[in-house]
Structure to design on (290 residues):
């Protein structure tokens, strides 16, 4: 009898559900054990965990269910094997301007029209307030001096533009709409910034247990630029020395299938030097976000 995902994770100390799902999908796709082990080691997994996880995942595949299920990608991300430089998502053609494997970062162009960017800002303005971060010692939010922006959250589907964008993101990143947190709009005035941080929740922090009950761990982030910034305001990944400059309608996506520093997704919002910066952020969870 095939093991459940929970049983697989329990059988391999140090593994995660996202890791096991990824291995299963890659094995089904025909990739060899040796190839997958190399990929896991390159991503920062230890040889012990990588080998044990691969071994554990081969048993379920020997007895697949009689009714084949639709295989969902192991994590959010565009299909770059089928679409090289242009991805059609039903209502819009999205450009792939740059892509990296480690860290898993993709720069998109033309995600939003100018009118859609302007409408998101206009609808968000009345609700803007000082941005908060998750408190590390409790399941609540707090003012953090590392984050000096103004922000607000839309509920899923709150406005026609938000609903349209959420459907577009789900198709682009091949991840269910219901697995996304509400879209957050942020405004950075001159001097405002967000110092280097990770978007996933630290499992060791006391506050994380309650947060993870609402949809599991965060596994991906999409930062959408809603305006051009005359100077400053870039998105910087210090571990790989990547920097993206705000361009209206463009977006930066990065994935982190497990909450570890080996994903190289430490990032920061550079201080705005001239003008102001408007972005919308979409965080993606393992499961339905409630």
């Amino acid at each position: 009898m095939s093991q459940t995902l929970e049983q697989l994770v329990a059988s391999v100390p140090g593994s995660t559900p996202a890791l096991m799902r990824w291995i299963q999908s890659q094995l089904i796709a025909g990739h060899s054990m040796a190839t997958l082990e190399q990929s896991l080691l390159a991503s920062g997994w230890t040889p012990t965990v990588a080998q044990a996880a691969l071994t554990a995942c081969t048993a379920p595949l020997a007895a697949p269910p009689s009714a084949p299920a639709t295989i969902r990608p192991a994590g959010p991300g565009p299909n770059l094997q089928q679409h090289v430089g242009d991805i059609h998502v039903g209502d819009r053609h999205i450009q792939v301007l740059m892509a990296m494997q480690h860290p898993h970062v993709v720069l998109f162009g033309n995600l939003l029209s100018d009118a859609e960017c302007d409408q998101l800002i206009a609808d968000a303005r009345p609700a803007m307030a000082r941005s908060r971060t998750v408190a590390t010692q409790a399941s609540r939010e707090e003012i953090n001096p590392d984050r000096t922006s103004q922000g607000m959250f839309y509920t899923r589907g709150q406005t026609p533009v938000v609903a349209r964008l959420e459907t577009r993101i789900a198709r682009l990143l091949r991840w269910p709409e219901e697995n996304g947190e509400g879209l957050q709009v942020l405004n950075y005035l001159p001097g405002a910034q967000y110092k280097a941080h990770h978007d996933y929740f630290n499992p060791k922090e006391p506050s994380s247990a309650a947060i993870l009950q609402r949809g599991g761990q965060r596994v991906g982030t999409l930062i959408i630029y809603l305006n051009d910034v005359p100077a400053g305001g870039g998105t910087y990944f210090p571990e790989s020395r990547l920097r993206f400059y705000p361009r209206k309608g463009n977006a930066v996506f990065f994935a982190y299938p497990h909450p570890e520093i080996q994903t190289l997704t430490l990032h920061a919002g550079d201080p705005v030097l001239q003008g102001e910066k408007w972005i919308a952020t979409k965080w993606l969870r393992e499961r339905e976000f409630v």
Summary: The first helix runs from residue 5 to 11.
